Amino acid sequence: SIYRKKSEFLADELAKEKKQACTDAQRHLGAIDNGMRITRHGENGERVILNDAEIAADKARTAKIAADACK
User: Which of 18, 41, 52, 69 has the greatest number of CB atoms lying within 10 Å of its CB?
Assistant: First the structure.
């Protein structure tokens, strides 16, 4: 039926998004672990380099995202 096809399509799209989130999180964790400079955009759109405490918090947040998305 059309509802089943739509449900399967949505499940496939969700799986793709979850896989991409997993890949992105793992890539970001790799960048952190390799000592790359981690930046974010400030209030005025300028690039701000994160300090060690901010990097640690970002790593913890990203690790949680990876744990959820990479199941």
Answer: 69
Paired residues of 49 in beta bridges: 39
Which ranges in the chain belong to alpha helices (H)? 2-33, 52-69
Whole-angstrom distance, CA of residue 8 vs CA of residue 2: 10
The whole-chain average pLDDT of the chain stands at: 95
- CA–CA separation, 40 and 22 (whole Å): 20
Residue whose tokens read 């390799």: 34
* pLDDT tens-digit readout, 46-68: 999 999 999 999 999 999 999 99
